[in-house]
Design goal:
The protein has about 80 residues and is mostly helical. The protein is built from three helices and no strands. The radius of gyration is 13 Å and the shape is globular.
């Protein structure tokens, strides 16, 4: 099943019809991708991401979404430091 908006995402999760939701920041935005990661955490799912552009800004976006979600759920995200 595919989910292209929040209503559909809710249905796919409640019906258990998705194994790995894609939290692509190009589609959901960065804030939306973090929310997808939160929903996956709540439902015990692993989230993934896919893009045909894995360089430069795209790679940075994926990395930031991962780091934010990791910090939210484990408290082990990288911390910003002043140098």
């Amino acid at each position: 099943m595919i989910a292209t908006d929040w209503r559909q995402m809710g249905h796919t999760l409640s019906l258990q019809s998705v194994d790995i939701p894609l939290a692509d920041p190009h589609f959901w935005t960065m804030q939306g991708s973090v929310r997808v990661a939160q929903m996956c955490h709540e439902f015990g799912l692993t989230w993934g991401s896919h893009s045909n552009n894995h360089f430069d800004i795209s790679l940075a976006m994926f990395t930031h979404v991962f780091d934010i979600s990791l910090a939210m759920f484990t408290g082990s995200g990288r911390k910003a430091t002043n140098v």
